[in-house]
Amino acid sequence: MYFLVVILLLGIAPAGSVFYEHSYLHSTASLIFLIGKWFTFWAVGVRLFIAGLRQTIQPRFTAQEIFKVEGEAVFPIVREIGFANLSMSTLALLSLPYPSCLLAAALVGGLYYGFAGLLHVAGHERNLKENVAMVSDLFIAVVLLGYLMLTLTVPR
């Protein structure tokens, strides 16, 4: 299930949304803007909202399956990570009805995914799930931070 969610929310859904808006809705927005808009919405908004809910409601899963930590003493920390994910995701979800939130959401999401990806790189003896997380985190970081660089450096 994890692999399906990663592929869907970090690849298929954002790419499909870009394609749909560009090709079928004939959006006048630039392709760079559409990539930033939809990858921010799906990868930061939807993906981190789901993760944040799970971490807040069911901290045992994140503690044991992701961080390999046993015991309930760590649950408050996992819940706080969940609150951070819910906060970031709210900003990204708001970027759809309020495009003025997009750059901030792409920045915070791109940094988050970049730092998380680098943390995976530094880890030793990664399993398949951790390798998928590392690659997908770094991919989203490159997309979002690349979008920001192109948006902020191109003269208007």
Query: What would you report as the Rg, rounded to the nearest angstrom?
Result: 16 Å
Helix content: over 70%
Tell me the domain tally.
Answer: 1
Give me the number of helical elements: 6
Distance between the ends: 43 Å
Total strand segments? 0
Q: Rough shape?
A: elongated
**H-E string:** HHHHHH
Regions with pLDDT < 50 over 5+ consecutive residues? none
Largest sheet: none
Task: Kindly report the average pLDDT value.
Answer: 94
Oligomer: single chain
- Estimated share of beta-strand residues: under 5%
Structural class: mainly alpha
Structural write-up:
- The structure is a single chain.
- By secondary structure, this protein is an all-alpha fold.
- The protein has one domain.
- 80% of the residues lie in helices and 0% in strands.
- It has six helices and no strands.
- Helix 1 packs antiparallel against helix 2 (31-57).
- The model has no long low-confidence stretch (mean pLDDT 94).
Secondary structure elements and pairings:
Layout: H1 2-24, H2 31-57, H3 59-66, H4 75-94, H5 102-122, H6 128-153
